[in-house]
Amino acid sequence: MQPIRTFNVSPSLPPRLEPLRRLAYNLHWDWNVDTKDLFRRLDSDLWESSHHNPVLMLGTISQSRLLEVVEDEGFLAQMDRADRQLDDYLQERTWYQKQREQKPKECYAYFSAEFGLVDCLPVYSGGLGVLAGDHLKSASDLGLPLVGVGLLYQQGYFAQYLNADGWQQERYLLNDFYNMPLHLERNADGSELRIAVDYPGRKVYARVWRVQVGTVPLYLLDTNIEPNNTYDHDITDQLYGGDIDMRIHQEIMLGIGGVQMLKALGLKVTAYHMNEGHAAFSALERIRLLIQEEGLNYVQARQVVASSNIFTTHTPVPAGIDLFAPDKMLHYLGYYAEIFGLPKEQFLGLGRENTGDLSGPFSMAVLALKMATFSNGVAQLHGVVSRQMFQGLWQNVPVEEVPIAAITNGVHARSCVAKSTQELYDRYLGPNWSSAPPDSPLWDRMEAIPDEELWRNHERCRLDMVLYVREHLVKHLTDRGASASEIIQAQEVLDPYAFTIGFARRFATYKRATLWMRDLDRIKRLLLANKDRKVQFVIAGKAHPKDIPGKELIRDINHFIREQNLEKQVVFVPNYDIHISRLMVAGCDIWLNTPRRPREASGTSGMKAAMNGLPNLSVLDGWWDEADYVRTGWAIGHGENYDDPNYQDEVEANALYELLEKEVVPLFYEHRDSDGLPRPWVAKMKDAIRLNCPFFNTARMVGEYAQRAYFPASDRYHTLTVDNYAPAKELAAWKEKLNEHWFNIRIKDVDVSAASDIEVNQTVAVKAKVDLATLTNDDVQVELYQGAIDANGDIVNAIPVVMDYQGEDAQQLSTYTGNITYTASGLQGLSLRVLPKNPNLANPYEPRLIAWAE
Ligand SMILES: *Cc1c(COP(=O)(O)O)cnc(C)c1O
User: Fold this and answer.
1) For the DUF3417 domain, which residue ranges apply (predicted)?
2) Distance from Cα 538 to the centre of ligand 1, integer Å
3) Quick one: which of 645, 709, 716, 606 has its CA closest to 377?
4) Phi and psi dihedrals of 203, rounded to 5?
5) What is the DSSP letter of 641?
6) pLDDT band for position 825 (cuts 50, 70, 90)
7) Fewest C-beta in 10 Å: which of 217, 456, 473, 622?
8) In the predicted model, what is the mean pLDDT of the chain?
9) Cα–Cα distance between 626 and 607 in angstroms, integer?
């Protein structure tokens, strides 16, 4: 039955409790232990049953309970304190203000297909979303003028449950937006703010919801409204649901709709950050607006867009990238080619590495890379892999110079460290530990935390996790209609005092969730051997609904548990989410990760574990490859890459067993003092915190994005757009001139002062004559390129040296001089090259032109 009228009924609170409403609608409560405590105190059962959703809680709590707390002085005092804390937080003078005091107004828009902020907003699937959520939280902590842009999924990502055979089933729950911490954005006249996005043959409308994340607003688009047709209602129905056509519909809404939404909100955005390629269509829409509303031509508009665009890639394998067939691209987005004045093939070339490949698919990552002037991978190793993967986009640029930087991921400390542990750190390190940099003297105070206190706190966290897992399993089995004996068994799983190995993440096959089961005899020996050295596993994670091999891994684990009668010792916790993650990274003893290197771009759950004092036990991939894996955990293998996956599994499973048998479990159980305190283990816990928390932290990470990407991009935006875009037009014209003449540049006579036999540290003078082909010295920089020669005869690890311009000779050849010295002996090489130079370029590789000596 359709309603004839609808009402948005808001919770009715006694006036004295009005601050609760404000607190509930700002997600700051998620990383402020006092505020979270306040909601738990209000009604702890409701707090749990609402999935920690304070808005739903305030809407459903009984009037009698509200009247009770109005009389509760202690509660009111805590509420007023939380309210003041929020005020202080919102008014604080921030890191950003100190950095950018004299700058014109800025706004950074951060686009992501998913955001994992709190468990009551299930619009994320895994690490990418949690990273985006943490990015917003730290942007708020630092005071950045950042806004998030995403989609509000009616059903979100699925809830997982297992059938009796251990096979993953999916259940899609409807999100009730009106009972979530969401504000509907409205126009001045009170009507819903709406945008209309062009799709083939129709417009699709979307309204806008805001999640307030501290000072940062996250705006989410919702197409589940009239007069959209039923198909279009579903564009924002499920995260990563549907087929390839649905995917392109979603990415149009995210990218193109996102830009329109920012405009409708009146935001003057100066830097755009595309978190993964899903939002890359935003570049097309920005170009269109500059052409149609600002009168720029395509080349000029593209310059403005690229100069202010930032792209972060998270995918170290080509198979993980969104690709669209050319005919689909033209069907959905072909009208942009007309607006841009581009032939179809040239338009499709924006998403092709090799623009000459006329049948190749359209890659969102390639589009993003071509439309950004700052790009990065998410760990140092991932930077290396990305530079190799996309080297073809920068012809003749040595792979180590391919302009894809690396900004290592982090996690938001106040969101992932257990409450009691945060209080412990607050007490001994002071409240700034959650964002203090690695060189802060605060970290020396780690030693002041008594071993006993850290250990007892950790044991409490383990117990909390065990109790939660039991309760959660019982509920899951009851819902499934499991037998009474199964339910009784679930009440007793795990030993709160046993050594606990944690493994939780998405069940993508490359993560090899079953590697530890590979040798049945050996794992059974470990699990069953010694009664005073009990070992147990807690495992969780969802497979993508279409990932059958991923689901098979889940089933294999459940079969293994049953066949080996290990129900008490190995537990698969269904429906992994942020809440379960937080309990596990605090309550396990070690965090296991066994990805197939180098496929884990970064990985973040291990960082969360480290901040809670867990050593990691992991393959050297992603972030762990650059961590202090000797002092803060153990490395499985030595960072080898293998061609034969089966052989790799064999070698790495063996290495894992060796470490567990000979090092990890003994360190945990041996060397206990008379109080049962494992001092050497606790020392490792302290190292895990001290050495990882300050670096693998989104406070550091977002600061790095700000300084390396947002500030420069915003500055470029301001510089290029003054005087009605005059500098942008000039830069675009200059690039066109460059393109026209570049291929006539010739490096002519190269004069080297020494013969081929020289000594280490001997200075060699080089003089070169360059035909700049009507370009001038102001347009270029000429560089010496010196380095060792490898087995293939190529110069490697070169250090470029800029040469000095000496003027033009009678034949109009430009003369350049420079000196080199070799600091190492052996076969060394020298080359020369010319690169474009312009103060408004983000980097010399931006025009994708380079001329080498022949
Ligand atoms: C942190 C987190 C992840 C990411 O874990 P990885 O180790 O990076 O795979 C996934 N899901 C949830 C719920 C998380 O909290």
Assistant:
1) 13-121
2) 15
3) 709
4) -105, 145
5) -
6) confident
7) 456
8) 96
9) 12
Distance 605 CA to ligand 1 centre (A): 5
Supply 313's token pair.
Answer: 């890639």
Atom 12 in ligand 1: residue holding the nearest Cα: 126
Question: Which tokens go with 22?
Answer: 């404000």
Q: Atom 3 (ligand 1): residue with closest C-alpha?
A: 127
Coil, strand or helix at 468: helix
Exposed/middle/buried for residue 168 (C-beta within 10 Å: 0-12, 13-18, 19+): buried
Would the pLDDT of 84 be above 80?
A: yes
| CATH 3.40.50.2000 placement within the chain | 95-406, 413-696
Atom of ligand 1 nearest to the CA of 505: 9
Q: Is the CB of 850 under 6 A from ligand 1?
A: no
Ligand 1 in reach of 541 Cβ (< 6 A): no
- CA 487 to ligand 1 centroid distance, Å: 28
CATH 2.60.40 in the chain, residues? 745-852
Q: Assign 191 a pLDDT band (cuts: 50, 70, 90).
A: very high
pLDDT band at 823 (very low <50, low <70, confident <90, very high): confident
pLDDT digits (tens, 9 = 90+) for 609-640: 999 999 999 999 999 999 999 999 999 999 99
pLDDT at 7 over 80: no
User: Which residues, 6+ apart, have CB-to-CB distance to 724 below 8 Å?
Assistant: none
502-514 pLDDT, tens digit per residue, is 999 999 999 999 9
Mean pLDDT in residue range 74-87? 98
Q: What is the pLDDT of residue 755?
A: 80
pTM for the structure as a whole? 0.97
308 CB-near residues (< 8 Å, 6+ apart): 270, 271, 272, 713, 714, 716, 717
The DSSP bridge pattern shows strands 159-162 and 168-171 to be antiparallel
The count of other CB atoms within 10 Å of the CB of residue 254 is 26
Residue 521 pLDDT greater than 90, yes or no: yes
Q: Do 712 and 271 contact (CB within 8 A), yes or no? A: no
E strand or H helix that includes residue 347? helix 344-349
**Ligand 1 binding pocket includes 133 (Cβ within 6 Å):** no
Written as six digits, the tokens of 356 are 């000459």
130 lines ligand 1 (CB under 6 A): yes
Atom of ligand 1 nearest to the CA of 580: 13
Half-sphere exposure of 824 (CA within 13 A, CB side): 11
Q: How far is the CA of 125 from the centre of ligand 1 (A)?
A: 9
Task: Return the CATH number of 413-696, one of 3.30.70.100, 1.20.1250.20, 3.40.50.2000, 1.50.10.100.
Answer: 3.40.50.2000
Ligand 1 atom, smallest distance to 604 CA: 8
β-bridge partners, 206: 195
Q: Cα of 748 to ligand 1 centre, how many Å? A: 55
pLDDT at 161: 95
What tokens does 202 get?
């129709």
CATH-assigned architecture of domain 95-406: 3-Layer(aba) Sandwich (3.40)
Alpha-carbon separation of residue 719 from 559, 713, 716, 725 (angstroms)? 62, 10, 5, 9
Domain 745-852 = CATH 1.25.10: no
